[in-house]
Amino acid sequence: xxxxxxxxxxxxxxxxxxxxxxxxxxxxxxxxxxxxxxxxxxxxxxxxxxxxxxxxxxxxxxxxxxxxxxxxxxxxxxxxxxxxxxxxxxxxxxxxxxxxxxxxxxxxxxxxxxxxxxxxxxxxxxxxxxxxxxxxxxxxxxxxxxxxxxxxxxxxxxxx
Length: 160
Prior knowledge:
- By secondary structure, the protein is mainly α.
- The protein has 2 domains: about 5-55; about 95-160, no CATH class.
- The protein has 6 helices and no strands.
- The chain has helices spanning about 5-25, 30-55, 80-100, 105-120, 125-145, 155-160.
């Protein structure tokens, strides 16, 4: 009999433990607070249990996959790669600063707009339509439909 404790099984087991912990922790929380861990935790637990069962029953058989040879791209100049890495890290840090400064509800559409126009160099039609879609998602879905308002940013907290 084949050993059950493969790396796939161990990873699925760790994910299942994390899902159980999240679900157990959220039992005493108010409904709105516990909604996110429960919505994510239940499917995560079910899928990790299915993965463990697939590993134990060996449904897929002992397949030998091709070895993956990971190699950094050699056709990009290291200076260009460093510049691109710095640029994307700056965008991420800028997004975090926007979230802290003006709050999630306004930061997401503003970030989408700025990123598409400045970094993506997209046209006005696509930029504005995706920005409106981002705002509708943040305001319509999270705030109005799910009643999960995000906290105000530091700037609005200071002005209030």
